[in-house]
């Protein structure tokens, strides 16, 4: 089995574009949630979301190509490009047959679907764009990344709702660990701040109805009332340690474990006992060949819905004990919930936190729910020299995915 290291990262998130800005702002507790501007949301009953600021398609995608790409694919190309630049991967140091892509999305091109259905209804089927299908389908982030970087190993997509990004990274990790690839571009992208998505999740009573951007996403708070929709993307370039060392790459961190299970319980609600969520954490920790007491930090799924936060807290207690010292935070209090991209940006902040020795605070918890008996990160305890951390993602349909990371050392 090959060791799998991280050599490049890319992010576009509501609280910061680019890895440097995103990490700096997340460690400082900066909230990227704001009033919805992409459409008139007044009839949906939802007021705020984690919209991307200052996105320029010309930075990485290009004006001409952008016309043929849904926004989620544009975000994916941007973060993959940033990660590849950071990693220094090119055709001189990497064989295209050894370079693959596993990149997920929870929904794919929903804005394109919405717009083209309206066009068909208003103007007739002959007016539907010839690019409708290749813009809308959920595999096109991976496909376009593969084309752009001439990646000829596996190119595939994983759709496991809000676990998509984490499952994608986990499966890419497996690919390298087992020797089927040397380098993988992996992560997730989502662009669902539109009327259809907001209305749909609002109909499920899943979204926060708060009008205050600073008091909308409240992970583990007793007054939490739903998640805040976010958008963006995250990417990792991961490779075998042997390949990275052969080309003199800077290593940012190491993936040492991956656990995936299914609740087999309900289409939208997590198992309230958190049994399978706990088992996915245990599987990641066991694959890392460590014990729970060696894990210093859990980047929680922490959506700020009542069911998720209570169930996840129980799962953490099952793995680490009710009086455990492990520190926990959800970064969704700053970014909102990026659905299929959530696990990808959360992997980035987890790796960066291990590298810097500073954990992201759990923004948005003003009065911790007694049901959530976990130790939350705050400004007083966020400076920690931790060797191992895990990152949790749980999706509609009962999908549970957990990654275990190690602070880089050659040992």
In short:
33% of the residues lie in helices and 19% in strands.
Can you tell me the CATH class of the largest domain?
Answer: Alpha Beta
Contiguous uncertain segments of 5+ residues: none
Query: What is the radius of gyration?
Result: 20 Å
Number of strands: 14
Shape: globular
SSE topology string: EEHEEHHEHHHEHEHEHEHEHEHHEEE
Number of helices: 13
Instruction: Give the helix proportion (percent range).
Output: 25-40%
CATH topology of the largest domain: Peroxisomal Thiolase, Chain A, domain 1
Strand content: 15-25%
| Chain-averaged pLDDT | 97
Main β-sheet description: 12 strands, mixed
Counting structural domains, the number is: 2
Distance between the termini: 15 Å
CATH architecture of the largest domain: 3-Layer(aba) Sandwich
By helix and strand content, what is the structural category? alpha/beta
Q: Can you identify the CATH superfamily of the largest domain?
A: Thiolase/Chalcone synthase
Describe the structure.
33% of the residues lie in helices and 19% in strands. The chain is of the alpha/beta class. It has two domains: 4-246, Peroxisomal Thiolase, Chain A, domain 1; 259-406, Peroxisomal Thiolase, Chain A, domain 1 (3-Layer(aba) Sandwich). The strands form two sheets. Strands 1, 2, 5, 6, 7, 8, 9, 10, 11, 12, 13 and 14 form a twelve-stranded mixed sheet that branches. A two-stranded antiparallel sheet has the order 3-4. α10 packs across α11 (306-320). The radius of gyration is 20 Å and the shape is globular. The active site is at 162 (for beta-ketoacyl synthase activity). It is an enzyme of class 2 (transferase).
């Amino acid at each position: 089995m090959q060791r799998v290291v991280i050599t490049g990262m890319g992010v576009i998130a509501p609280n910061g574009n680019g890895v440097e800005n995103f990490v700096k702002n997340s460690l400082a507790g900066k909230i990227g949630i704001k009033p919805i501007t992409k459409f008139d949301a007044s009839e949906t009953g939802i007021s705020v979301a984690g919209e991307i600021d200052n996105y320029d398609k010309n930075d990485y995608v290009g004006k001409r190509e952008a016309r043929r790409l849904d926004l989620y694919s544009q975000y994916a190309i941007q973060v993959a490009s940033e990660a590849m630049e950071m990693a220094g991967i090119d055709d001189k140091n990497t064989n295209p047959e050894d370079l693959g892509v596993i990149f997920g999305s929870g929904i794919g091109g929903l804005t394109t679907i919405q717009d083209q259905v309206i066009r068909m209804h208003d103007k007739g089927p002959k007016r539907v764009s010839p690019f409708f299908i290749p813009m809308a389908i959920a595999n096109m982030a991976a496909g376009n990344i593969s084309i752009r970087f001439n990646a000829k190993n596996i190119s595939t997509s994983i759709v496991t709702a809000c676990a998509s990004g984490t499952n994608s990274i986990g499966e890419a990790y497996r690919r390298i660990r087992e020797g089927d690839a040397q380098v993988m571009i992996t992560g997730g992208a989502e662009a669902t701040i539109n009327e259809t998505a907001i209305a749909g999740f609002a109909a499920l009573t899943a979204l926060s109805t708060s009008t205050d951007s600073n008091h909308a996403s409240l992970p583990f708070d007793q007054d939490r009332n739903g998640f805040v929709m976010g958008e963006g993307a995250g990417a990792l370039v991961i490779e075998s340690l042997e390949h990275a060392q052969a080309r003199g790459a800077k290593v940012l961190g190491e993936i040492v474990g991956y656990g995936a299970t299914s609740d087999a319980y309900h289409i939208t609600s997590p198992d309230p006992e958190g049994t399978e969520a706990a088992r996915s954490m245990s599987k990641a920790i066991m694959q890392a060949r460590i014990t729970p007491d060696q894990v210093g930090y859990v980047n929680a799924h922490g959506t700020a819905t009542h069911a998720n936060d209570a169930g996840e807290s129980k799962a953490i207690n099952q793995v680490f004990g009710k009086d455990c010292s492990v520190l926990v935070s959800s970064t969704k209090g700053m970014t909102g919930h990026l659905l299929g991209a959530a696990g990808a940006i959360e992997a980035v902040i987890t790796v960066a936190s291990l590298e810097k020795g500073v954990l992201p605070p759990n923004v948005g918890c003003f009065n911790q729910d007694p049901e959530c008996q976990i130790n939350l990160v705050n400004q007083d305890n966020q400076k920690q020299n931790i060797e191992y951390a895990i990152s949790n993602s749980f999706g509609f349909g009962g999908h549970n995915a957990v990654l275990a990371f190690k602070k880089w050392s050659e040992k």
